[in-house]
């Protein structure tokens, strides 16, 4: 009998290892798959997906921690006691809640044509599961969705909404099948899952070819004529028509950008959709055309974000545009992409821009891994890419950025579709043949912020008692609770404590190559 009991007990343990088990608060474990890289992906299907569940913080005197690590933890939840006295750890992170900085707007990703194609390639159940992972309360709480206006490289064809030459009145302006059959229905489903209104953000890649100097959607080209002229006025009205058409489907936009990567349209032989603007041209187009058109439209409260390009163009771009009172009065913020961030320190670009123009917010509008020729496309299970995401988000937040938007919400295993074969990576990779999707380590990079930093959360000061390899950012949420997000990119375990004068000492361990989110109530 004892032998039989031992065998049964062993079988129970084995089953527990291979079958995902539900934990407290509705959480479910990752079904890990290793594709031979430095970490794992979590596999989801129509009936199962790992989730940390909806989160309620423990009462005053306790704290929650959520750990994701290269070793395989994925938002692993734990609770423990706040200590009255110091643990004596050599490294102490001290919260300074009287040092107050920017308030958070939100986190999210882009509903490109490619993302929509991939989501819709799954069964209805798996589609719902994927959307829940991003937008529902039991998911990671995305609140921002960037929507390309017409085609971009992550489309299967080249198109705009006004391809009839000479249509200055936009009489033939029409949304594409991609909008009607894919993006709009998916955005409506995402909105239905979200407990709050989604912050939709529109970006155009190119004006119709007939409005452009090069007569093409791709390559080096800008609008014909000058700001204030008929092409520039029509291009402004194109934005208004887009907002009006989407509003018919109950989708209203929080913000629009002045155009995706205007520097690309100034480059010879640029391979995909682009519209060139210099900062001076952008300034004058906003002042003379876009600003007045938006102000006179039925969407006067839609925010205008300039730049929508790499931060190395700052602060120069901001100086040219925002120093002009005629343009500045229509503008709310500066949109930045993460590409080439390593070439310019955050303080010299983001920091200087904020200090020069504190009334305008900074917002991250695009980022992805796998975009460089030597490191191209999808890498299933890449921890290094997840660390790059988390590092960049912390660095941005610590330099006044109010939100961070990933690129494609979902791609296929090649990193597409992309009509120009500009394949990249995504936090969610779809395998339509098996009707599954994989949540990459970068999905959890996003989760450590989007799940915990609600809109209105305010960054506060945090200081270290000694030099450390930890990277961190601290926030007070609208309900008064505190959140501290920590990245350990080193290969060593780091012991430390957090001191919040309002509650006490929190003893912590950051495993090698890990992300840690700590959260606690303060009253």
From TrEMBL:
* Primary location recorded for the protein, binned into one broad class: membrane
From the UniProt record, which GO molecular function terms apply? beta-glucosidase activity; galactosylceramidase activity; glucosylceramidase activity; glucosyltransferase activity; signaling receptor binding
Supply the SUPFAM superfamilies for this chain.
(Trans)glycosidases (SSF51445), Glycosyl hydrolase domain (SSF51011)
| Annotated catalysed reactions | beta-D-glucosyl-(1<->1')-N-(15Z-tetracosenoyl)-sphing-4-enine + cholesterol = N-(15Z-tetracosenoyl)-sphing-4-enine + cholesteryl 3-beta-D-glucoside; a beta-D-glucosyl-(1<->1')-N-acylsphing-4-enine + cholesterol = cholesteryl 3-beta-D-glucoside + an N-acylsphing-4-enine; a beta-D-glucosyl-(1<->1')-N-acylsphing-4-enine + H2O = an N-acylsphing-4-enine + D-glucose; a beta-D-xylosyl-(1<->1')-N-acylsphing-4-enine + cholesterol = cholesteryl 3-beta-D-xyloside + an N-acylsphing-4-enine
Q: Which residues, if any, are the signal sequence?
A: 1-20
Glycosyl hydrolase family 30 TIM-barrel domain residues: 104-453
One GO BP: neuron cellular homeostasis
Lineage: superkingdom: Eukaryota
Which Gene3D superfamilies has this protein been placed in?
Answer: Glycosidases
Subcellular location, record wording: Lysosome membrane
Annotated Gene Ontology cellular components are:
lysosomal membrane
Is Phosphoprotein a UniProt keyword of this protein?
A: no
Which keywords belong to this entry?
Glycosidase, Hydrolase, Lipid metabolism, Signal, Sphingolipid metabolism
Protein name as it appears in the record = Glucosylceramidase
Native species:
Sparus aurata
């Amino acid at each position: 009998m004892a032998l039989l009991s031992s065998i049964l007990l062993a079988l129970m343990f084995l089953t527990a290892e291979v079958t995902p088990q539900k934990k407290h608060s509705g959480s479910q474990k990752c079904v890990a798959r290793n594709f031979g890289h430095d970490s794992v992906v979590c596999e989801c299907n129509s009936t199962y997906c790992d989730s940390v569940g909806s989160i309620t913080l423990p009462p005053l005197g306790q704290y929650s921690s959520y750990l994701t690590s290269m070793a395989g933890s994925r938002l692993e939840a734990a609770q423990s006691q706040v200590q009255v006295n110091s643990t004596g750890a050599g490294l102490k992170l001290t919260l300074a809640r009287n040092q107050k900085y920017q308030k958070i707007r939100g986190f999210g990703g882009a509903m490109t044509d490619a993302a929509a194609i991939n989501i819709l390639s799954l069964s209805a159940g798996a589609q719902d599961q994927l959307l829940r992972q991003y937008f529902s309360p039991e998911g990671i709480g995305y609140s921002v969705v960037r929507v390309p206006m017409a085609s971009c490289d992550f489309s299967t064809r080249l198109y705009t909404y006004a391809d009839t030459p000479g249509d200055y009145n936009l009489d033939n302006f029409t949304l594409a099948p991609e909008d009607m059959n894919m993006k709009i229905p998916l955005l409506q489903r995402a909105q239905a899952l979200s407990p709050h209104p989604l912050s939709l953000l529109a970006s155009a890649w190119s004006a119709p070819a007939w409005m452009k100097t090069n007569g093409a959607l791709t390559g080096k080209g800008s609008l014909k004529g000058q700001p204030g002229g008929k092409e520039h006025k029509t291009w402004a009205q194109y934005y208004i028509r887009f907002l009006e058409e989407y509003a018919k489907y109950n989708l209203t936009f929080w913000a629009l950008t002045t155009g995706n990567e205007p520097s690309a349209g100034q480059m010879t032989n640029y391979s995909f959709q682009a519209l060139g603007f210099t900062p001076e041209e952008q300034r004058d187009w906003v002042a003379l055309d876009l600003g007045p058109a938006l102000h006179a439209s039925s969407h006067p409260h839609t925010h205008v974000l300039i730049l929508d390009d790499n931060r190395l163009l700052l602060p120069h771009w901001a100086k040219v545009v925002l120093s002009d009172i005629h343009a500045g009065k229509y503008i709310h913020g500066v949109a930045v992409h993460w590409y080439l961030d390593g070439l310019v320190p955050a303080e010299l670009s983001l920091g200087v821009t904020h200090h020069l123009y504190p009334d305008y917010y900074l917002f991250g509008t695009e980022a992805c891994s796998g975009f460089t020729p030597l490191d191209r496309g999808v890498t299933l299970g890449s921890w290094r890419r997840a660390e790059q995401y988390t590092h960049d988000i912390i660095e941005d937040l610590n330099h006044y950025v109010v939100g961070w938007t990933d690129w494609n919400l979902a791609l296929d295993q090649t990193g597409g579709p992309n009509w120009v074969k500009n394949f990249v990576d995504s936090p969610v990779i779809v395998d339509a043949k098996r009707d599954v999707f994989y949540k990459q380590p970068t999905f959890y990079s996003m989760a450590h912020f989007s799940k915990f930093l609600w809109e209105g959360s305010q960054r506060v000061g945090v200081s270290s008692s000694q030099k450390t390899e930890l990277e961190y950012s601290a926030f007070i949420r609208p309900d008064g609770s505190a959140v501290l997000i920590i990245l350990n990119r080193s290969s060593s375990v780091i012991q430390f404590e957090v001191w919040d004068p309002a509650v006490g000492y929190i003893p912590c361990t950051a495993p090698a190559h890990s992300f840690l989110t700590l959260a606690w109530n303060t009253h």
